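## tool: complex_structure
## caller: assistant
## args:
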Amino acid sequence: MSDTRLLDQGTQPIRFARGWHCLGLASDFADGKPHAIHGFGTKLVVWQGASGELNVLDGYCRHMGGDLTQGEVKGDNIACPFHDWRWGGDGKCKEIPYARRVPLRARTQRYETVVRNGQLLIWHDPEGSAADHDILPPELPDVMTDRYTPWSWNTREINGSHCRELIDNVADMAHFYYVHFAFPTSFRNIFDGHTATQFMESKGRPDTMGGGYGDENSTLKSVATYYGPSYMINWLEVDYKGFITEVILINCHIPTGPDSFLLQYGITVKKPEGLDEKACAYIAERYTESFGDGFLQDVAIWENKVAVQNPLLCEEDGPVYQLRRWYEQFYVDVADIAPEMTDRFEFEVDTTKANEYWHAEVAENLAKRAAAEAAAPADA
Amino acid sequence: MASFVPTSEETLEDLRRYTEDRLVDVACLDCLARVRVKKNSEHQTSVQWSAEARSACQEFVRRDQRPGGRDVHKPCTRLMASIDDAVRAGAVSVGAYDGY
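## result:
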């Protein structure tokens, strides 16, 4: 009998989550050309038809498997490069130019689309249900008007990690100190229905190089809510030396395979009053860069860690088991959603002891640095 | 199974321990909501709601009717006050056991 604790790496789910997934900025697809997006174990084709609608279908033609993303938009339809079969946004084959008639069974996988806050969202459900518009992410007032900077949008492929790693961050208080170089001074979670929220207040560490959350001159009030399995809105109030900026960060992803996903993030900044366009654009760029750096800090961890089904927790940790129980609802059939997956759960982390220890460590680091600087030859 | 559901006995026991152990019933002093509460320290609180309690909370009913809905992601202040009362009365013990 051994007391050694074993890592249960579990097994990965054999399906992709049910819910709304963001494919990117709607304007990026609106050029009348087909676009390829890898997702849900396949390739999707996205295009805007002549009537202006954005459409999303499985990327492979049901005739002989031609790659529709290399085809051509003809009218409202996407035409296959192989034999010119024309597919409509409703998933039906509309025309086969060389055939007397279109087979009745010529229907392919289509995805219902919604444009919200300037982004293209699609509904994915392995059970094939109709899209649930009641659980769409909310519209963001004034975003996409001249009161906010335009979305700055970025993507990054993550390989070797299931997207649950990204979700785990919602409940992870201590990684903000170690990975993002900030003191999380207040940390709470609320999971309720299809939403999971993290409330955090943090202050940058003075003993690190800054960047992202770690700038010692800035304090942050952050409210981040996942609306479903893959789309998070993060409302951030950044106080930089007394200058307050409101930032909205979208953090979303599309699963691509059993252990890979495409991370996407977008940033818009409420234009501070009294600043000209150039200054606003500069501020938006800086925040895009720093939160982008923040994601890269996470990625370095994800790409090297293993999956853990049985995390071992201490008192200062957040409610990762409850978070995963919430996340589970998107991976089971609707009929199998258990009450505890959607029942409201609230958790406040006690950050007092952790911050005492961290401040002591930072003070020690600063003292060491000062001693090293004092010891360096003055004429060097 | 099409999901992450743990398969090992030990992991299932961990799941139960972290999500169910030491939860104590607390009734709201202002409405019919009854929740389950755990406190690992003075500043740490877990509140487990049920669907019944969620629909009994008058504060949440009011907030659900407002557009936007960002409010819903905050705790009910009346329930939090009721929990503080229960802690003062000794009905909810404060302290952790080996990390949970």
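## assistant note: Chain A touches chain B through 49 residues (CB under 8 Å). The longest helix of chain A spans residues 277-302. Handing back to user.
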